[in-house]
Amino acid sequence: MPELPVEIPIPTPHQAVFIMVAVATGVASLLVVTNRNLFYSALCLVGALFGVAGVYVLLEAEFLAITQVLVYVGAIATLITFAIMLTRGIMFGVTSPNNRYMFAVMSMALLVFLLVAGVVDRVPWAVAEDLTLSGDGKSMIVDLGWEFVTTYALPLELIGLLLLIALVGAVMLARDDE
Amino acid sequence: MAEWYQVLMTALVGAGVPEWIATAVALLAGVTAIGLVAPLIALILVWLLRKVISRIQDRIGPNRVGRFGLLQTIADIVKLLSKEGINPSRADFMAYNLAPILSVFGVLLLFAVVPVTRGLIGVDINVGVLYIVALGSIGIMAALMAGWGSNNKYALLSGFRVVAQLLSYEIPLVLSMLAVVLYAGTMRFGELAEQQGNFLGLGWYVFLMPGAALIFFVCALAESEQTPFDLLEAESELIAGFHIEYSGMRFAMFFLAQFLGGFVFAWVGAAMFLGGWQGPGVDLPGIGGFLAAGYMMIKTFAIYLLMIWVRGTFPRLRVDQMMSFCWKILVPLTVGLISWQMVVQVLELPTPVIAVLVLVGNLLVMGIGLYAVGRAIRQEGFRTKRAFTPDSLIGTMQPVAE
After folding, report:
1. How far apart are the first and last CA of chain A?
2. Is A114 a domain residue?
3. Maximum CA pair distance of chain B?
4. How far is the alpha carbon of A115 from chain B, nearest alpha carbon, in Å?
5. Adjacent-strand bridge partners of B115
6. Boundaries of domain holding A76
7. Cis (ω within 30 of 0) for the bond into B228?
8. CA pair distance B162, B190, nearest whole angstrom
9. Residue range B35-68, pLDDT digits in tens
10. Which of A146, B147, B247, B346 has a 20 to 30 A CA-CA distance from A155?
């Protein structure tokens, strides 16, 4: 076989799957903002969230992947879909991405992107070698649970409190005046 | 017995197949097996349901096509395939056509983690139990899409009700499964079965946690939309809620998803509470593996038959009864059960004492639950007497003064 002048990178099966999942996630995310029908946007959002779960699976973070599906697809996406369906004007109407908020939203999105990019770039992330959680999955989940109730007990409780406040607020908003 | 995946890989690589092709072939074989076996099981399930329900109702059931009517389901499928697929006018094309596919897809994915026998599990992931719970959300999305996409306000209303039911009953379902996970300390289905192998393979969790098992069974009925929680489907009365606009094969796909959903919950229940493939003699060389797979199937079909029995004998709940049963009885009971079990397990007690305390907690939960249900049924008697007055509160979820 003659030597090629430029080495063409052939993806390993793992990389090929990653590329497919990543492209699907990206396309779904784009469709979320470009769709004219808000219900389709919500469905595409579900697709994008599934794609992110797929990326987690490829990173061998199964627990995170399942939690992603459970929380984002199971709860949040369903809630969004419900809100859209119960709002008749939105459900049957057609919206356009080129509305008057376009520039404001685009600049906000750019700012958020810069913020995230800066964080990703500057923070000294602990790479896999530093985080030697034991290999088999069972003890990993046990470790995770242990960390939640010891090291990160306060954040966990605060999140629980936040959710409780949101719940009580929702009930207060929804109940009839007597 | 080794993992099926390892065995297949070793055989293929040994035969001189490159490793990446072997991986692809092995994975494809697993996926194909699940994709083919699950619909074939559904054929048996439909036949079994019709036959047993008929016996309960003092009928004979299907008996014309094939011996004992065994081929009736195949004839039905041929009929459904040849039916016209009707598109309602102004139905949303994407949502309408994607919903049946998604509903089957969500159920088929569940078959990937349920165990058949030692080493024969599609994928024995370390979060197997959580996986079962998480994928329930696909079914919810499918119901929403079907209800919305049909362009029929009754389908949409029923879609809302389905989502309300599935989301509500998911909570006690998860908590009852959590009881087992807490005790076993693992979410891997293979390991859950291994841990129930004491006492000649009869150390099943149902003997230790009858309360959790009962709550799991009730929630499984609700999650797979079976009697007494099939008020959304009500095949003979309502002509099937959210998939009312579907016909032909698309209707059959919802049907398939529903049957397989019930079956897979029976399977999960057998794996978690009835010891999985454990039973006397599974460690014997040679026949042990077949014996184990046989036990697994017998247990699963036993739970499925129990579901059919309930279907044939129980009356249907009203929507407000369904909701209050979940939120006022099941959720507090399971939360109490889990809290009790956590306290018991954190105290450093010897294992038999923990087991006895867990059992006591479960029996208490069962007692309280049955008492509460009995009380609700007695109150229902008062309500029914008032049902004929014009300003009745029936169905408004308001408390009735006694």
Report:
1. 85
2. no
3. 81
4. 32
5. B121
6. 10-98
7. yes
8. 32
9. 888 888 888 899 999 999 999 988 888 888 888 8
10. B346
Give the model's confidence band at B192: pLDDT under 50 very low, under 70 low, under 90 confident, else very high. Answer: confident
**Is residue A116 assigned to a domain?**
no
Cα distances (Å, whole numbers) of residue B75 to B38, B72, B239, B251, B270: 18, 5, 21, 16, 31
Neighbours of A133 (CB within 10 A): 12
Q: Do A69 and B137 touch (CB under 8 A)?
A: yes
Split into its structural domains, chain A has a count of: 2
What's the gap in Å between the CA of A73 and the closest CA on chain B? 7
Query: How much is the pLDDT for B397?
Result: 58
The verdict on residue A46 lying in a domain is yes
In angstroms, what CA-CA distances link B295 with A172, B132, B346?
52, 22, 34
Residues A150 and B375: their CA atoms lie apart, in Å, by: 42
How do strand B120-121 and strand B115-117 relate by DSSP bridges? antiparallel
Could you write out the DSSP letters of every residue in B166-195? HHHHHHHHHHHHHHHHHHHT---HHHHHHH
Q: Which of A40, A73, A141 sits opposite B126 (nearest CB)?
A: A141
Give the type of residue at B195.
Q
Nearest CA in chain A to B93: A40
Q: Does residue A130 register a pLDDT over 50?
A: no
Q: B145 vs chain A: nearest CA distance in angstroms?
A: 9
Residue with tokens 């088929």: B108
Alpha-carbon gap, residue B315 to A96, rounded angstroms: 49
The pLDDT assigned to B306 comes to 93
Q: What is the pTM of this model?
A: 0.85
Question: Average pLDDT over chain B, rounded to whole?
Answer: 84
Q: Looking up tokens 């389908």, which residue turns up?
A: B155
B93 near A CB under 8 A = no
Q: Does B171 touch chain A (CB under 8 A)?
A: no
Do A19 and A80 have their domain in common?
yes
The helix (run of H) or strand (run of E) holding residue B120 is strand B120-121
Q: State what percent of residues in chain B have pLDDT above 70.
A: 93
- Predicted confidence band of residue B1 (pLDDT cuts 50, 70, 90): very low
pLDDT at B94: 81
pLDDT at B173: 92
What digits encode the pLDDT tens for the residues A159-177? 999 999 999 998 888 887 6
The H-or-E segment that residue A74 falls in is none
Judge contact between B34 and B264, C-beta under 8 A: no
Same domain, yes or no, for A22 and A91?
Answer: yes
Lowest mean per-residue pLDDT among B231-235, B246-250, B297-301, B371-375: B231-235
- Whether the CB-CB separation of B85 and B248 falls below 8 Å is answered with yes
Q: Determine the pLDDT at residue A116.
A: 92
Could you tell me if A94 and A166 lie in one domain? no
Is 60 exceeded by the pLDDT of residue B387?
Answer: no
Which of A74, A82, A140 is nearest residue B137 as measured by Cβ atoms?
A: A74
Amino acid code (one letter) for B349:
L
Task: Report whether B201 contacts B282 (CB < 8 A).
Answer: yes
